[in-house]
Amino acid sequence: MTEQQKPLVGVIMGSKSDWPTMKHAVDMLEQFGVPHEVKVVSAHRTPDLMFEYADQAEERGLQVIIAGAGGAAHLPGMVAAKTTIPVLGVPVQSRALSGKDSLLSIVQMPGGIPVGTLAIGDAGAKNAGILAAQIVANQDAAVREAVKAFRTQQTQTVLEHPDPRVD
Ligand SMILES: Nc1c(C(=O)O)ncn1[C@@H]1O[C@H](COP(=O)(O)O)[C@@H](O)[C@H]1O
């Protein structure tokens, strides 16, 4: 449903193979009711599409871009180079180097072109979705309330299960 409204968050990834990780970001956006779009865009394999996507993101109304990539993960940095919309980078866990390559490719941006880099893998993608919602929430009361409700619920769940041996 939220995918049909004008998207405020763009979730892009270098390959279809990144989806099982990036799905965690999309799950959070759906939970918070943030309109979003999802697309495979690669700096390496579809450089012209990447350029066009980043170039048009602002005029299309996107407020945040979440970019996930693995290995030589240039996508988040290259998108950030072409737009002033905040870009959140998710290092996808690679098989060869467990995602350390992805992390270092994304996090070590030169001064002047920031990428907000999250943790490697599923938790990083989840947090990217939450962070994007928190950015949108600055100007959207419904999303703000949804994020607050999520936090309250999360705290409650921990407090209600203090004994780690009991489910
Ligand atoms: N890092 C990038 C970029 C990019 O940075 O533009 N495009 C694809 N990839 C990554 O290559 C990995 C393997 O991709 P395949 O599974 O398609 O071979 C993926 O994790 C993808 O993000």
From TrEMBL:
Signal peptide coordinates: none
Pathway assignment: Purine metabolism; IMP biosynthesis via de novo pathway; 5-amino-1-(5-phospho-D-ribosyl)imidazole-4-carboxylate from 5-amino-1-(5-phospho-D-ribosyl)imidazole (N5-CAIR route): step 2/2
Residues reported in the UniProt entry to bind substrate: 15, 18, 45
EC number assigned by the record: 5.4.99.18
Reactions catalysed, as given in the entry: 5-carboxyamino-1-(5-phospho-D-ribosyl)imidazole + H(+) = 5-amino-1-(5-phospho-D-ribosyl)imidazole-4-carboxylate
Keywords on record: Isomerase, Lyase, Purine biosynthesis
Top-level taxon in the UniProt lineage: Bacteria
Domain PurE: 7-158
GO molecular function, one term: phosphoribosylaminoimidazole carboxylase activity
NCBIfam families for this protein: purE
Function: Catalyzes the conversion of N5-carboxyaminoimidazole ribonucleotide (N5-CAIR) to 4-carboxy-5-aminoimidazole ribonucleotide (CAIR).
Protein family membership: Belongs to the AIR carboxylase family. Class I subfamily.
PANTHER family, A to Z: PHOSPHORIBOSYLAMINOIMIDAZOLE CARBOXYLASE, PHOSPHORIBOSYLAMINOIMIDAZOLE CARBOXYLASE CATALYTIC SUBUNIT
Name of the protein in its database record: N5-carboxyaminoimidazole ribonucleotide mutase
